[in-house]
Amino acid sequence: MSISFNRIQRPVTLSQEIVENIERSILERKLVPGQKLPTEQELCAMFSVSRTAVREALRMLSAKGLVTIKKRSGIFVNDMTSTEAVSGLGLYLELKFEKDYILHVFNIRQAIEPHVCRWAAANRSTASIWELEKNLLKMKDCPPEDRETESLLDQEFHQMIAAASKNPVVPLVLQPVFSLMPRIRAMVYTHIPNCVSAALEYHRRILDAIKQRDEEAAFREMQIHIANAAEQANEVIDIIDKKAHAQDEANRTTVSP
Amino acid sequence: MSISFNRIQRPVTLSQEIVENIERSILERKLVPGQKLPTEQELCAMFSVSRTAVREALRMLSAKGLVTIKKRSGIFVNDMTSTEAVSGLGLYLELKFEKDYILHVFNIRQAIEPHVCRWAAANRSTASIWELEKNLLKMKDCPPEDRETESLLDQEFHQMIAAASKNPVVPLVLQPVFSLMPRIRAMVYTHIPNCVSAALEYHRRILDAIKQRDEEAAFREMQIHIANAAEQANEVIDIIDKKAHAQDEANRTTVSP
DNA sequence: ATGTATAATATGTATGACACAATAATTGAA
DNA sequence: TTCAATTATTGTGTCATACATATTATACAT
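Above: the input entities. Below: the structure tokens describing the complete assembly.
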């Protein structure tokens, strides 16, 4: 392995320095969420730099999700949500995704989600039960051919359980999984166009367990649900591999007759 | 609860549009990592906008980690790493951290890491074994009073196991956990200044299991290791709570004599 | 071929200007 | 006096221009 050195960028740009400065202020709670920052002009004066530098710094901060720029109104410290915090993940996975992520994702789901479900059973509020019931109703009313909606509801169900666990780190941990699922589902549907979803029944049993605060049942039912989904995913992988293989054969025969 | 709607910012700024445009090109692989983008001037011409708009767009893209701006040289499409992808997480957790995250993090670690360790035992390469051995040696040589280094090595060990699992989603999933651990460790050390770490022994047993490809043992040993760490963490929580309580009492008596 | 000096290039920063929407201030009506 | 409509002000969005300075390429000398 040949190591490589990165170029040394000695003098940081002004805008970066401004970014770091403001970022530090936010981290140190000198600037609190919702608070309005000084105007561009004032910032220019404070840092003794041009508006160019200040504006570029503010754009970077907004791209990072630390501030919100309200057009022609002002710059405000943003109350970062977990969703924004992991927004970069979506882009990353969009770029790096490949088909064997399907198995990897399901392995992880099998490991984590039953536990999360148990915690949900232990800590769920009545409000979350209500939300989950609503979700189930919507799924019941969803026409079987409307895959789009069904996927959304399925995802929502699992995310609501993550929230119901009352462990604030769980949604962060599961974010990569949830980011990848739409793509995985799309792949499943393109290769098994007329697969039938049994999500509704599984969700019903899971919700019942959570409702009754039956931690063991919640764990078990979620385990069963994910195992079933994983099985489906495995079938898809097989089909994709077979198709790829067939394609390969076809190519070989045409290339070297 | 009165809901509130956020203002709709219809006319997106020019720089935003440019960002979306270039972002799309990167996502569609029209621009590949390492590739140099046109110069600012050329981009101005292509989009028919001022240099201001282009520059602000480029700054946002660089803040998002999609491009790297080399000073006075050019703008290059960045090959996003998973670390960059979740860089926003660090900021978020810095802002949101509170003491009960300790328990939440350990709950999650108990749920996930044994599984990850099992996968590592199944899929580990000889290279990863070597790396893990090196880590263990360094930890053995680490003086017990050097908490800083020990923490780093401990974290490294767990991250290396995550990598050894050969599941590319695992490091992403565990990122929030690893982001929080330094802070948690710092808290432990401030409240139990002379606690003694038994990490070395546990790590030894874990590595042995992985080396022998003994999946069950790997699972079990990691489970034991994390359970032990969680126990310590619980003690710390107790101590903190007691201190807080004592402080509370003190305040009460001084305020209302 | 290697190293140095020069020129061309691209980004970094500053300044000034103006459009336009959002807010604040003012005015007018009930 | 209170509320609504109008006007004024403010602050951001965008453009144009200029120059500084570091990087890269070119040419030249050794």
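Note for the figure: Chain A has two domains: 14-80, 85-255.
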